[in-house]
Design brief:
The protein is α+β, with helices and mostly antiparallel strands. The protein contains 5 helices and 7 strands. It is 28% helix and 22% strand.
Length: 132
């Protein structure tokens, strides 16, 4: 299955409904040469016209590279490192694209491997979590 990309005219998500800190993170990652997308439940909520409770981002930047870009970043997790970027009490979670055996029933493997956006989408659970 190939990814389908929708233009802003097609998906009709108003930019002013996206958290300005999430936009800041995505733009800063892109400016540093990385790929970065808003992902998961916030995308679903925006499509449905609802206010997302939080915003998550996936990127080609590795956790240590994310930490270098954002002074308020802390890295969490042992098996798979995630970046939490803080803005006061608000936390935006940033994950690195993963790869993995898509035939494996358990998609969260002991030894995660960094991947591309396409590989990351394929290893997700094919529900709303595959929306970028």
């Amino acid at each position: 299955m190939e990814p389908k990309v929708y233009s802003s005219k097609e998906h009709k998500i108003p930019i002013d409904k996206i958290d300005h800190h999430a936009i800041y993170i995505i733009e800063k990652l892109k400016h540093a040469g990385f790929i970065a997308y808003l992902v998961g439940g916030s995308v679903r909520d925006l499509i449905l016209g609802l206010k997302p409770k939080d915003f998550d981002i996936s990127t080609s930047a590795k956790p240590e590279e994310i930490k270098k870009l954002f002074k308020s970043c802390i890295l969490i997790g042992k098996r798979f490192r995630l970046a939490h970027i803080r803005f006061g009490k608000k936390i935006i979670e940033v994950s690195t694209f993963r790869s993995g055996d898509i035939e494996e029933k358990n998609l969260i493997l002991r030894d995660n491997v960094w991947g591309s956006p396409k590989e990351d989408a394929k290893r997700r659970d094919f529900t709303i979590n595959v929306l970028f």
